[in-house]
């Protein structure tokens, strides 16, 4: 852990704090009924939780946006898993306090590898919380097989035959190991890796991520509000690396857009007040450019074959089930639909695919 003075002087501290923002927004959405997620409260501990629910409650606009973002990305993940089959691999870049692995386990989705990557400071906290929570750590092992301790009698009832009872099994070893001074956690299917994505892919992804993956199996990578904080050439390197390394691939990113207009400038100023800049947002001012980044010729031929993007407003209008929109509209009073449209049009989900046909919205 960094000391208070060191944390204040660390230029990356503001970027790390964005995970707290996302987790707090998710916890608010869960608490108010927008999302069903029993794991967020285990991985994120808000500083003012003792003050009661009102202390963690976000504005309705934020709760709606969090719902739409989650619904869209969950749908893309499900479409990938439907096509990829049991060898599916997922890599979450800048995963922070994300809970998607556990939610997928609850849905009994087959995943061969699920890898999360973030700063060591973030992964150390997450590894601690996973280790201390039986609800989280128990999901890192293989799915337990069903068993019965009673045998049916001829009449169909059951009884316990104490004469043939086996002694209780020995305590099982933990289904995971914690490594690298507590910053890395590894199990059969779930991997939490401490990496700085701003380093060149040859020294991070090739050397530290790839050993945990099968390059012949389908891969989906997720990057939610990650690339905007990186130099554009670095995010292009990451896209190119994935495209060159895997033959069957999908990528999903969630980013801000439209930052050149009046509302976008307000967003920029608010972030600047928190010592956050957006070097990775400049070359991608709109939804079309976010989709085009996957098929940019500078990445190389055939890195990605198809791409697309939708704003959160478009996702609200054309992707999310109308019954779900009706349900969440009853959770909080929200009368400024034009304001909602303005906000949702400044965030988008983009995707690119290679040798996959239906991973799109």
TrEMBL record:
<feature type="compositionally biased region" description="Low complexity">
    <location>
        <begin position="136"/>
        <end position="158"/>
    </location>
</feature>
<feature type="binding site">
    <location>
        <position position="94"/>
    </location>
    <ligand>
        <name>S-adenosyl-L-methionine</name>
    </ligand>
</feature>
<keyword id="KW-0489">Methyltransferase</keyword>
<feature type="binding site">
    <location>
        <position position="224"/>
    </location>
    <ligand>
        <name>S-adenosyl-L-methionine</name>
    </ligand>
</feature>
<comment type="similarity">
    <text>Belongs to the methyltransferase superfamily. LCMT family.</text>
</comment>
<comment type="function">
    <text>Methylates the carboxyl group of the C-terminal leucine residue of protein phosphatase 2A catalytic subunits to form alpha-leucine ester residues.</text>
</comment>
<dbReference type="GO" id="GO:0032259">
    <property type="term" value="P:methylation"/>
</dbReference>
<feature type="binding site">
    <location>
        <begin position="196"/>
        <end position="197"/>
    </location>
    <ligand>
        <name>S-adenosyl-L-methionine</name>
    </ligand>
</feature>
<dbReference type="InterPro" id="IPR029063">
    <property type="entry name" value="SAM-dependent_MTases_sf"/>
</dbReference>
<dbReference type="InterPro" id="IPR016651">
    <property type="entry name" value="LCMT1"/>
</dbReference>
<dbReference type="GO" id="GO:0018423">
    <property type="term" value="F:protein C-terminal leucine carboxyl O-methyltransferase activity"/>
</dbReference>
<feature type="region of interest" description="Disordered">
    <location>
        <begin position="130"/>
        <end position="179"/>
    </location>
</feature>
<feature type="binding site">
    <location>
        <position position="69"/>
    </location>
    <ligand>
        <name>S-adenosyl-L-methionine</name>
    </ligand>
</feature>
<protein>
    <recommendedName>
        <fullName>Leucine carboxyl methyltransferase 1</fullName>
        <ecNumber>2.1.1.233</ecNumber>
    </recommendedName>
</protein>
<keyword id="KW-0808">Transferase</keyword>
<dbReference type="InterPro" id="IPR007213">
    <property type="entry name" value="Ppm1/Ppm2/Tcmp"/>
</dbReference>
<dbReference type="Pfam" id="PF04072">
    <property type="entry name" value="LCM"/>
</dbReference>
<keyword id="KW-0949">S-adenosyl-L-methionine</keyword>
């Amino acid at each position: 852990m960094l000391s208070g003075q060191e944390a204040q002087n660390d230029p990356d501290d503001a970027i790390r704090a964005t995970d707290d923002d996302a987790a707090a927004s998710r916890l608010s959405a869960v608490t108010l009924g927008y999302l069903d997620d029993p794991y967020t409260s285990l991985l994120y501990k808000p500083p003012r939780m003792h003050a009661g629910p009102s202390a963690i409650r976000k504005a309705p606009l934020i709760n709606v946006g969090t719902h739409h973002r989650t619904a869209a990305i969950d749908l893309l993940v499900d479409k990938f898993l439907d096509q990829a089959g049991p060898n599916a691999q997922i890599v979450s870049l800048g995963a922070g306090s994300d809970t998607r692995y556990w939610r997928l386990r609850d849905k009994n989705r087959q995943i061969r590898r699920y890898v999360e990557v973030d700063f060591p400071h973030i992964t150390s906290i997450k590894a601690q919380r996973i280790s201390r929570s039986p609800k989280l750590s128990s999901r890192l092992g293989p799915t337990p097989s069903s068993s019965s301790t009673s045998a049916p009698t001829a009449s169909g009832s059951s009884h316990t035959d104490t004469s043939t009872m086996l002694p209780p099994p020995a305590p099982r070893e933990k289904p995971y190991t914690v490594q690298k001074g507590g910053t890395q956690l590894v199990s059969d299917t779930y991997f939490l890796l401490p990496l700085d994505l701003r380093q060149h892919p040859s020294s991070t992804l090739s050397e530290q991520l790839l050993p945990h993956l099968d390059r012949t199996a389908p891969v989906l990578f997720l990057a939610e509000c990650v690339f905007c904080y990186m130099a554009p050439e670095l995010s292009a390197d990451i896209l190119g690396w994935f495209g060159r390394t895997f033959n069957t691939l999908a990528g999903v990113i969630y980013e801000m857009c439209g930052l050149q207009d009046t509302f976008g400038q307000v967003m920029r100023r608010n972030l600047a007040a928190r010592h956050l800049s957006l070097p990775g947002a400049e070359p991608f001012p709109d939804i079309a450019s976010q989709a085009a980044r996957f098929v940019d010729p500078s990445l190389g031929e055939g890195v990605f074959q198809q791409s697309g993007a939708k704003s959160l407003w478009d996702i609200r209008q054309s992707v999310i089930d109308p019954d779900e929109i009706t349900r969440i509209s009853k959770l909080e009073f929200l009368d400024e639909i034009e304001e909602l449209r303005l906000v949702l049009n400044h965030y988008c989900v983009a995707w690119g695919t290679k040798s996959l046909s239906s991973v799109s919205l």
